[in-house]
Amino acid sequence: MTERLDLRQRQGLHGADYVARYRRKSPLRLCRLVDLMTASRSQGLQGADVVDFGCGDAVIVEYIRDKVSTYKGVDFSAEFIQVANQRKAALKASNVDFSCDSITHFGRQHRDCFDIGFSFDLSEHVYDDEWQEIVNSMYSCLRPGGHLYLHTPNADFLLEIMKKHNFLLKQFPEHIAVRNVQENCHFLAEAGFEDVSAQVIPHYNIARIVHPLSLLPWVGKYFQARLFITAKKPMTA
């Protein structure tokens, strides 16, 4: 069994080197995620107060700042927040703000504040017990009727299975908890979310060429690379 990393060790994994690698993320990935969020809500992103949990360098701001009313990004990495603030200044984005904080602490300070929350490629970096606390905090941040969107690798994808067993491929050291559909949705239901649903989407690198195989019977699930999960906070919450 892999030794559990403490918070300091995980923060070290998300330092300057990781920030530099993260900045090379595919624009295709972000465009696709913005489109999925927009399509799943009747009014799209227009006029919404949004919170980006685990915002990283906040490159998504470039795609949504003219759509949303306000954008708030939160991340525990000071290096990421520094880059995010540089981006804000370059864009002269007055409706954008960032907090260098844990999501659980942020959640206690921002109850019922946002119409939309999203967390892209974060959950796989967090152990189960901590992830449930984080999802609970996400829930508390949303206004009744608010929407949450998650994007994460799928543990049932063939390449993820190979990484798990160190067969030809090695898992990213930051990816300590890649989960499947059922496992991801369980955390949301436990937090109180309703209308939890997941759709499989292609990878955004060369691995996307195998996505058509996801339609095959019996073995299709092994070619479903990525998950886009939606959930809603009940109006009566």
UniProtKB/TrEMBL annotation:
The keyword Transferase applies. One of its GO terms (molecular function) is methyltransferase activity. Pfam families: Methyltransf_23. GO terms for biological process: methylation. CDD domains: AdoMet_MTases. It comes from the Bacteria. Gene3D superfamilies: Vaccinia Virus protein VP39 (3.40.50.150). Coiled coil: none annotated. Keywords: Methyltransferase, Transferase. This is Methyltransferase domain-containing protein. It comes from Shewanella salipaludis. The lineage of its organism: Bacteria, Pseudomonadati, Pseudomonadota, Gammaproteobacteria, Alteromonadales.
